[in-house]
Amino acid sequence: MRIVPSPYAAGLARTPVARHDTVVAGVPAAWWEYGEPGDGPTLLLVHGFRGDHHGLEPVVSFLPGVHVIAPDLPGFGASRALAGEHSIDGYSAWLRAFAAALGLRSDVVVIGHSFGTIVAAKALADSLPAARAILINPIAAPALAGPNALGTRLSSLYFGVGAALPERIGNALLQSRVITRGAGAFLAKTKDPALRAWIHNQHDRFFSAYAEKRVVTEAFTASVTHDVTEWADRLTLPVHLIAAEHDDITTLDDVRRLHALLPDATMAVIPAVGHLIHYETPRAAAEQIAAVTGVSVA
């Protein structure tokens, strides 16, 4: 498969990166470390559905000198699948075990994107020690009630069929580039053809990097049956919401309602972008992270 050069490669090259492999709760897990521990906070990144650690690298590219930990969630990227179900409870337990295995301190800042905001919120509600949470493109309402409810129902049918088929045939359906390209084209708002080409290439390269069929079908179910509001009253730490003006998954009104439910929350809206803040406006996301954590932006 051809590789489209990243428009953020030069920024990322400023930061040393190392892959690590750790057994977490009996599951081999791969994680990436950017930068080194210093005077500032460590950022723990939680990627979105069907992605892996690559997804938030554009944001990291604007945070040189910041210590970042970015795991591949179980069953995605280079991490092995859980023995049990890939549910929100399963991912929450794993993320808490991951932080404990690495000895992350309670001053860590947890940053989630999309599905990662649900995983992060549940883990934090389940007592993951952290100083602050930052939720990018937060899932602030049930997917079946959101602005793309019809699309969610069609996706549910698609994943349901994929789950019912034998492994090889089901994977062929679930890994269809036609489907992933269509989803990327729907979510992307940029008019820049070079940036759109890179986004599509990212989806082509990484959206099918899951361990087995049950991982992606179980994680899909988890992604559409939960949202951050379920645990809002238990998120007593400071939470910063980074919303998008044109998000097709969660409306601004939904994010504002989530903001009102959280005990200690702030909110920012990035204009002229949708659900792909991490791809299309990563510098703006990095600036928001810097604004609430005190780290520097390149």
Task: Kindly describe this structure.
- The chain has 298 residues and is α/β, with parallel strands linked by helices.
- 41% of the residues lie in helices and 16% in strands.
- It has an 8-stranded mixed β-sheet with strand order 1-2-4-3-5-6-7-8, sandwiched between helices.
- The two termini are 31 Å apart.
Strand order of the largest sheet: 1-2-4-3-5-6-7-8
Strand content: 15-25%
Cα-atom radius of gyration: 18 Å
Overall strand count = 8
Which stretches are low in confidence, meaning pLDDT under 50 for 5 or more residues running? none
Class by helix and strand content? Answer: alpha/beta
Mean pLDDT over all positions: 94
Helix-strand sequence: HEEEHEHEHEHHHHHEHEHH
Distance between the termini: 31 Å
Give the SSE layout:
Elements: H1 9-12, E1 17-24, E2 27-34, E3 42-46, H2 57-60, E4 67-71, H3 88-102, E5 109-113, H4 115-125, E6 132-136, H5 149-164, H6 167-174, H7 177-187, H8 193-206, H9 213-224, E7 239-244, H10 252-261, E8 265-270, H11 277-280, H12 282-293
